[in-house]
Write a structure and sequence with these properties.
Elements lengths: L2 E6 L4 H10 L8 E7 L6 E6 L2 H10 L6 E7 L14 E2 L5 E9 L2 H10 L11 H11 L10 H9 L4 E9 L6 E6 L4 E4 L4 E4 L11 E4 L4 E6 L2 E6 L10 E2 L15 H7 L1 H9 L19 H6 L2 E6 L2 H16 L4 E5 H4 L10 E7 L5 H12 L3 E6 L5 H5 L2 E4 L12 H21 L4 H21 L3 H10 L5 E7 L2 H15 L7 E6 L6 H10 L8 E5 L4 H5 L1 H6 L5 E3 L6 H7 L7
């Protein structure tokens, strides 16, 4: 996931862009670069392989400054992670530069054609094609008239196949940034006499909280006078400006050693904020925000489809248990990336629920559009106000988790589970599958969860001791039953997220049948034929009598201990030491 930051305004442009790029480091990158203009020295570019500190050192040795500019952190997709392949990329004349997030699928054909027309390429990337396309249309004059930069960009993106968010500047059009989106997220920030473009909200939070997301097919022209918005055909459009309530400090570490640890400790607040204003403890009623889906449609729903990716898919699997058990409505869960490719059957009376932390997940957006095309109303569970999925949904349940910087999800996952529980309660009440007394008891128990989480997080030393005990474990087996199976799946996901450089072998196992059934026991016996040693650990998400009885079989297999693993409690400590995670 590449990071983009652009700025036009009165501040020193280089510190603004570098600071914004630092706040996008969580996206991962292998090189970085910056291009600025406006100080009378033409277009200046600095790039460096590796971390941002390398770029800062290059800038220290060879300073640059200007009144507007763009910066980029690159996650290599085409070409090696080298300085020459780092963004920004130039055209032949050196008067146009581009930064880009995404993949240009037809870049080989475009590059071949541009070479035939005399263009010279110096990198291995797909992005350089964009710079040359803009040059082709921008520097070509008709009757002595040069097209504007936005006209050139509009023509260039019309030639592209793939997904992209990009920002372009040119020497010949000072104090102007042209940004376009088709797939990856892009946000426009509106400050006082200053304007921003970025890949994500944290990059600009220290400067403004007023912003809007570009939609697919949007092209923005950013100047000191403001932002002009059109579609790729040049037709003016308007996007609603959102005021983000996140405090910039919420995106900082807040005294913790790293973001993930901070976000683990923010889970009680995330659950409390997601619940706040949506329940009545006196009556047990659940109140959701105004939606275009009526109570009658919710009540008459024959089926709910849920589409999500990654951690959100695990939350969706847990939500399936909640909805079917409480609201007594059939639920089907799919990976959003695969759902549309199987041409799903969506009968009348089906509601499609999309779950995404960012609201900009491309596969989930595609699944949403597939559902809408087949006549299903869509509901979103999302953390970002004004994001693409929320704009296209008939209703949204916001999670209010705040920005999540850590790669491995913590509070966003917990908040998604909370939102799903609220939705299940809401449907159960509408459909009459839960009595008033049961609803009241469920709501009261929900209000106790933040306090229980806070108490759980007081066991940090115990969790750290367990993490140290199992640092030598070479494999983890996560066991889960029922609703705890998706929690086990998320447990397996986390160590791999945090230890990408050395994949930690993990296995996820499910007991689906009745506790007394011999089949689950047989399956656990089957796993005991693995080479289980003192470096093999088992994490049990939830103990039922049947699972607990099977523990003796594991003991016979020289398993030195059985650990109860609960989501995220020691994930941060694990991350610090490359330990296995989630010990409790």
């Amino acid at each position: 996931m590449c990071g983009i930051v652009g700025y036009v305004g009165n501040k020193r442009v280089v510190p603004v862009i570098i600071d914004g790029l630092k706040r996008l480091e969580y996206r991962g990158y292998d090189s970085a670069g910056i291009a600025v203009c406006g100080n009378g020295e033409g277009l200046q570019i600095r790039r460096a392989e590796g971390k941002l500190r390398n770029l800062e050192e290059v800038i220290r040795l060879k300073p640059l400054d200007g009144t507007y500019g763009i910066g980029h952190t690159r996650w290599a997709t085409h070409g090696r992670p080298t300085e020459e392949n780092a963004h920004p990329h130039r055209d032949c004349s050196g008067r146009v530069v581009v930064v880009h997030n995404g993949i240009i699928e037809n870049y080989v054909a475009l590059k071949r054609k541009l070479i035939e027309e005399g263009h010279r390429f110096t990198t291995e990337t797909d992005t350089e094609v964009i710079a040359h396309l803009v040059e082709k249309y921008f520097l070509k004059s008709a009757n002595g008239h040069h097209p504007s930069l936005e006209e050139a960009v509009r023509k260039a993106v019309g030639q592209l196949t793939g997904v992209f968010a990009l920002a372009v500047i040119a020497v010949d059009e000072p104090n102007k940034i042209v940004a376009a989106r088709n797939g990856p997220p892009a946000v426009i920030g509106l400050g006082k006499d200053e304007y921003f473009v970025a890949s994500d909200v944290p990059a600009i939070l220290y400067h403004t909280r007023d912003l809007f997301f570009l939609a697919d097919g949007d092209l923005a022209v950013i100047t000191p006078q403001g932002v002009q918005l059109t579609d790729f055909n040049g037709q003016p459009i308007v996007r609603q400006v959102q005021h983000v309530t996140w405090d910039p400090i919420m995106a900082e570490k807040g005294g913790f050693k790293h973001f993930m640890l901070k976000e683990i400790y923010e889970q009680p607040r995330a659950v409390r904020d997601t619940t706040l204003g949506r329940i009545s403890q006196e009556t047990g009623h659940v109140f959701l925000d105004e939606m275009e889906i009526t109570e009658a449609e919710f009540k008459a729903a024959k089926k709910i489809n849920i589409a999500a990716c990654g951690t959100s898919w695990h939350a969706a699997q847990a939500g399936k248990f909640m909805l079917e058990r409480m609201a007594r409505v059939p639920v089907e869960v799919d990976y959003a990336s695969e759902w549309r490719y199987r041409d799903p059957i969506i009968p009348s009376g089906t509601i499609t629920l999309l779950i995404s932390q960012s609201g900009e997940t491309a596969d989930t957006i595609a699944a949403q559009r597939e559902a809408k095309a087949k006549g299903s109303k869509t509901l979103a569970i999302c953390n970002v106000v004004g994001s693409m999925i929320t704009r296209e949904a008939a209703g949204t349940i916001y999670t209010h988790a705040g920005p999540e910087i850590g790669v491995a999800s913590t509070k966003a996952f917990t908040a998604q589970l909370t939102a799903l529980y609220l939705f299940a309660l809401y449907l159960a009440q509408l459909r009459g599958t839960m009595s008033a007394e049961e609803a009241k008891a469920a709501v009261q128990e929900l209000t106790r969860i933040p306090g229980k989480l806070e108490h759980l997080l007081t066991h940090e030393e115990d969790c750290e001791d367990l993490a140290k005990e199992y640092v030598r474990s070479q494999d983890f087996l996560f066991l889960g039953r029922g609703i705890h199976y998706p929690i086990a799946l998320e447990g397996r996901w986390q160590p791999r997220e945090m230890k990408r450089s050395k994949k930690l072998p993990t296995t996820c196992f499910i007991f689906r049948l009745r506790p007394k059934s011999c089949h689950p026991y047989w399956r656990s016996c089957h796993y005991s034929f693995l080479p289980i040693t003192s470096q093999f650990a088992v994490g049990v998400m939830w103990i039922s009598p049947g699972i607990w009885q099977s523990r003796s079989r594991w003991s016979d297999s020289r398993l030195f201990s059985v650990v109860l693993i609960r989501m995220q409690v020691t994930a941060a400590r694990v991350c610090q030491r490359h330990f296995p995670s989630w010990c409790f």
